[in-house]
């Protein structure tokens, strides 16, 4: 498989890890769009939100729980943060491995979205 995020999970591409457990990895975005900008990915390859199956729902729920914890750990849970999932070409999804961008640390204003060119 030629998936950038799968290569990060396996360790063949380095990342700045913020959180990791058996199912989820969180790492810093290499082109941050905010003072805090991390990516939350499942270690299981799922191409996009459109590919999520019923058996994946606990994993998606866990990703949201991890987002809450990471926001707290990075000090943006009280001031606020944005959680973004791009799905499909018109959204800007370029990495076909489901993920969330967690952004915070500043007033984010009226962003229309974050493309995966920031990943």
TrEMBL record:
SUPFAM superfamilies: HIT-like (SSF54197)
Domain of life: Bacteria
Motif (Histidine triad motif): 97-101
Record CDD domains: PKCI_related
Pfam families: DcpS_C
HIT domain boundaries: 4-113
Active site (record annotation): 99
GO MF annotation list: catalytic activity
PANTHER family: HISTIDINE TRIAD HIT PROTEIN
The name this protein goes by in its record: Histidine triad nucleotide-binding protein
Organism, as annotated: Paenibacillus rhizosphaerae
